[in-house]
Amino acid sequence: MGDMGDDFRAWREHKRQRAAEFRARIPAALKTLAEAGIRVRCLDHGEHYRVDERFDWWPSTGRWRSLDGKQTGFRVRSLIAAVTSSK
Asked: Which of 15-19, 45-49, 55-59 has the highest mean pLDDT?
């Protein structure tokens, strides 16, 4: 297929490895959220979480967004900051 096919396969493998790394960090992230006093509910068998009933969080990418769509971001620390600032 050529260079473009090789690049695509390498990119796809990189994305899979990165998602696996994020999934491996989920227990620590959930512990961090619990220590901050933030409620978390699991949706879609661990692929998607509802945080404090106001935010959606996808651990495989680290992305989060508010349910009203006004706030978005990445990583657990910024999610904690958003939850605590919007209370």
From this structure: 55-59
